[in-house]
């Protein structure tokens, strides 16, 4: 019986731990099924007993897939265009203002530099609009963060999620992908 590692997306890492002898009571008594997810967590857990070639008798192997974000948080160029056209998302560009002046910006986006996202998302609606020139997103509204290439927007997504925003996404291609796609039209 050969253990085959599942094919994972490039942003997903597979980490395995072996628990020989004593298995933590929480895991032992857990009613979670193989492949189940923990509510509010960003990982899924698989339990395999004695099916991995390196496992000894009575050893429990736990494989947990961790990704930097749930797969549904990434937005493509086409999806972003649709969201903007239908006004179905608040698009927040987390680059610095000089970057927008020098390189350009996605029409309809609001500029909130990454270092200000935490504070900005806790402002009152009027203060947010006065400072950033756009409507303050509600915690239930769809927010799409963007930046140059997807790194800062992912950090902003994590910040918003930690503040209780429910429907947060990021345009992982960022401004670089936007420009490339716009030039091909």
UniProtKB/TrEMBL annotation:
Gene3D superfamilies: Rhodanese-like domain. Residues 85-183 form the Rhodanese domain. InterPro entries: Rhodanese-like_dom, Rhodanese-like_dom_sf. Pfam families: Rhodanese. This is Thiosulfate sulfurtransferase like domain containing 3. It comes from Seriola lalandi dorsalis.
């Amino acid at each position: 019986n050969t253990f085959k590692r599942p094919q994972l997306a490039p942003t997903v890492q597979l980490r395995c731990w072996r628990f020989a002898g004593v298995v933590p009571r929480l895991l032992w008594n857990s009613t979670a099924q193989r492949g189940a997810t923990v509510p509010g967590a960003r990982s899924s857990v698989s339990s395999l007993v004695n099916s991995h070639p390196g496992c000894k008798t009575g050893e429990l192997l736990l494989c947990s897939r961790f990704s930097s974000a749930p797969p549904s948080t990434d937005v493509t160029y086409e999806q972003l265009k649709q969201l903007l056209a239908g006004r179905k998302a608040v698009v927040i560009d987390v680059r610095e203002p000089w970057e927008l002046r020098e390189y350009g910006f996605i029409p309809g986006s609001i500029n909130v530099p990454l270092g200000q996202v935490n504070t900005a998302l806790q402002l009152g609606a009027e203060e947010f609009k006065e400072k950033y020139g756009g409507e303050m997103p509600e915690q239930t509204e769809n927010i799409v963060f963007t930046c140059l290439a997807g790194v800062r927007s992912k950090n902003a997504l994590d910040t918003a999620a930690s503040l209780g925003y429910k429907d947060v996404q990021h345009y992982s291609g960022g401004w670089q992908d936007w420009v490339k796609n716009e030039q091909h039209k």
